[in-house]
Amino acid sequence: MPSLRIACYNIAWFTRLFNHRSQLILDRQPSAIRGVDRTRQAEAIALVLRAVDADCVAVIEAPNTGRRKSCVTQLQNFASHFGLRQSAALVGFESHTRQEIALLFDPARLTAEHSPVDGGADAPRFDRPFIADLDRDGEEGNYLFSKPPLEAMVADHETGLSFRMIAVHLKSKGPEKRGTEAEKRQRGLANRAKQYAQATWLRARLKGHLAAREPVVTLGDFNDGPGMDPLERVSGRSSVEMVAGDPARPEAMLRHPFNGSKIDPAMPRATARFYKARKRRHLHALLDFVMLSPDLAARTRPAWRIWHAEQDAELAHDGPLRQALLDASDHFPVSVDLDLGGVNGRKSD
Questions:
Q1: Which among 203, 232, 204 is positioned nearest to 291, based on CA atoms?
Q2: Which of 28, 210, 245, 261 is most exposed by smallest CB count within 10 Å?
Q3: What is the DSSP string of 282-336?
Q4: Does the residue 347 lie in any domain?
Q5: Is the dihedral of CA 223, 227, 233, 235 positive or negative?
Q6: Domain annotation covers residue 68
Q7: Do residues 133 and 141 lie in contact, with contact meaning Cβ atoms separated by under 8 Å?
Q8: Boundaries of domain holding 257
Q9: Sequence-separated contacts (24+) of 322-328 with Cβ below 8 Å
Q10: Are 166 and 218 in contact (CB under 8 A)?
Q11: What are phi and psi of 266, to 5 degrees?
Q12: Is residue 344 part of a domain?
């Protein structure tokens, strides 16, 4: 039976492993991971990518594109150095930060091309402003993506399946550390408002694709999850829930492991692990998701996996892979396996 594995992986500050000529740096200088040097992080990333063995990986925090640096060149140099089968890379609109969103894929299995869409005022192109009165106070806000989502059309050589992919890295709403409690709350609300605007924008784009019955995979780091923080009570739902859609309309609701009727109790409840020095412990958070349009999910019997080094029982007992997952990033990969045995390459009827 043919199958396809799709993954997303936030690789913490991947750009710091390359020099200004897009060449990989392998030395003993510190990486972005606490207590891990750059050689060790690079080798860990390669080991993890090999173990996950996805046909395509949405890389969040991919290496920076600049005047003399290319994200695509850096990723392809990395794949070549470590002999990865995911040897081709694709980027979309350039980020305004030092972190890009990219697709790393196996060109022997897939083709992928940047395919941005302009959905008009309700869902403009992701490199343009989104103007909306989201809080309905009579004043329109002007919102931007500092990291525009990557929109791609992906085609599978083996089965003829083609689908749209939207890879995202939503605005962080991490806890504010400076100022009075009132100031921290105000900045927290402002950050959440930006994230909600991005989620609203993304959902508007998805509505168009779902109405056209296009198979869609939406994946990446949403920097949010159900019940993540008390400010969620202001809107009543998380950005993830906003993007996925209304449970009362299942025909337009994206599928992921935590919104179905049969949630696997063994599934890890976190995709990221952050060290909190003041408390001398790690904070675990569910931030990364791979979501499928309902038609695609219905045809492919999806099987999700969160590659958590400690909460996945199999990985926890695999010493080298467990350590590599901890050394490579503060996030863990999330994958979905699609059973394409019954797929003939056409859209849903």
A1: 203
A2: 261
A3: EEEE--EEEEE-HHHHHHH--EEEE--TTTSHHHHT-HHHHHHHHHH-SB--EEE
A4: no
A5: positive
A6: yes
A7: yes
A8: 3-339
A9: 323/44, 324/43, 324/44, 324/45, 324/47, 324/48, 324/51, 325/44, 325/48, 326/44, 326/273, 327/33, 327/36, 327/40, 327/41, 327/44, 328/11, 328/12, 328/33, 328/41, 328/44, 328/45, 328/47, 328/48
A10: yes
A11: -85, -10
A12: no
Q: For residue 69, tell me if it sits in a domain.
A: yes
Please state the domain count of the chain. 1
Could you list the pLDDT tens digit for every one of the 349 residues in the chain? Answer: 799 999 999 999 999 999 999 999 999 999 999 999 999 999 999 999 999 999 999 999 999 999 899 999 999 999 999 999 999 999 999 999 999 999 999 999 999 999 999 999 999 999 999 998 887 777 888 999 999 999 999 999 999 999 999 999 999 876 666 778 887 778 878 888 899 999 999 999 999 999 999 999 999 999 987 655 555 555 668 899 999 999 999 999 999 999 865 678 888 999 999 988 888 888 899 999 999 999 999 999 999 999 999 999 999 999 999 999 999 999 999 999 999 997 765 444 3
The enclosing domain of 329 has a CATH number of: 3.60.10.10
The pTM assigned to this predicted structure is 0.94
Distance of CA 14 to the CA centre of its chain: 14
Give the containing element (helix H, strand E) for 61.
strand 56-62
User: CA nearest 105: which of 69, 143, 67, 156?
Assistant: 156
16-34 in b/e form (b: 16+ CB < 10 A) is bbbeeebebeeeeeebbbe
Scan for tokens 């923080």, then name that residue: 229
